[in-house]
Design brief:
homodimer; 220 residues; Nucleoside Triphosphate Pyrophosphohydrolase; Arc Repressor Mutant, subunit A; two-stranded antiparallel ribbon; disordered N terminus; DNA-binding
DNA sequence: GCAAAAGTGTTATTAGTACACCCATGC
DNA sequence: GCATGGGTGTACTAATAACACTTTTGC
């Protein structure tokens, strides 16, 4: 018998943390999907925060921390018997990340079951959107990389060709790049300069609660 | 005894939906905070989605739906005995929204306890950010409003003065406004034209899973 | 010397910023 | 007729988009 003050019991809706993983292999974006179509996930341990759960999930895959982990959205599925609440995360890995589970090119991942599909679709939407105004792409790159490689990563995430000169100028003026002394020679052509991520975020490096929400600026 | 496959029991972490409510009273942004410093909230009913829980929470306050409800972020608090997971929402109301609980100017709300403070701070950060690239502000306005009123709402959320001519041009070119035939006469001066929200979102009207994430555009 | 990818500048358009005066009304 | 807020335009600057050739290398 449930009154408006005693709505129960929330315990009956399981909570799960689900992680959309991405890696750039130099040619395509890859992800982790299990043979049954599910994503890496776990219920939170009772005494760990959701962020820690997400970190634990990816650490279980590669015994390395992801380069970047961010909460995406919390989905609640109530339409079937298997009710659950899924807190979704996005995790980005450098190309070196290898583990027990195989990476699959995102394009070759067939239609997923409804719930993982919701998470993956939203993850790709956010990844694409964040490319434009944050330094998120650098977490998919190796320590040192050429501008051509960086542009390829952008292009395959955005699904569009970018102008080489505009791209390079944009990167150069963003402050996100540091030139290294090294070059990469490979093939019968001019060697490419290697860059690394400066660690400085793009101007509008966005606002997650972790990054900024503790500031108390008043609204009048 | 918990192995890596049997992490239990998630049921021990209560789930709650917490809503940061905002209204623009013509002079200041107002919010709802209970005397004990908490925000309107409820655990989800077992068979309702989180979005519905949020809607139910605000409907309980005003017996009207909020003009706008959006999920913000899911916080997990594990540092004390009162562990809980809080799915936070932002809800915007038109000035007419009145109910059993009193609106309080946001500026007069003293320091809140840690958990509601986290939610409120992030809500104000997101509200401010979304002003710039979405049509979110219109959900705080009455059906018809003058450009001066709209600008005042923007200014008090942003905490900054805006240039009248630039503001008006920006609004006019955004396609978000519709001119009405009516004017407002009040006081010894030229009457002001009344506008209403066209329903068309600003160009980059952002991507929540509800609005768009079901689209399946591939990443190569 | 040629194939292959690296690297580089200019012009045109658009969006944003700064800034000051006339207009319609009530009293 | 004057006080009050409503309404308007222009010039400058910064960001974005379009576009084609030269450079360095390996073979």
């Amino acid at each position: 018998m449930s009154t408006s003050n005693h709505r129960q019991d929330p315990a009956s809706i399981p909570l799960r943390v689900s992680v959309a993983c991405f890696r750039w292999n130099g040619e395509a974006i890859e992800t982790i999907v299990y043979p049954d179509g599910t994503l890496p996930s776990s219920p939170p341990d009772p005494c760990e925060s959701l962020d820690v759960t997400a970190q634990r999930v990816v650490k279980g895959l590669f015994d390395t921390h992801a380069a970047y982990v961010e909460q995406l959205y919390t989905f609640s599925y109530v339409s079937t018997e298997a009710r659950e609440t899924v807190v979704s995360y996005i995790a980005l890995f450098p190309p070196e990340a290898e583990g027990s589970v195989a990476w699959k090119p995102l394009a070759t991942v067939g239609p997923l079951p409804e719930r993982p599909a919701t998470v993956m679709n939203y993850a790709t939407v956010r990844l694409r959107a964040k490319l434009e105004y944050t330094a998120i792409a650098f977490h998919l790159m190796p320590r040192a990389f050429t501008l051509a490689e960086l542009q390829l990563a952008y292009e395959s995430i955005l699904g569009a060709q970018l102008d080489k000169r505009n791209f390079r100028r944009r990167m150069a003026t963003s402050g996100m790049l540091e030139e290294t002394a090294d070059m990469r020679r490979e093939g019968p052509h001019r060697p490419a300069r290697l860059y690394r991520y400066s660690g400085r975020a793009d101007r509008s490096s966005y606002l997650t609660p972790s990054s900024d929400a503790t500031s108390q600026e008043s609204i009048s």
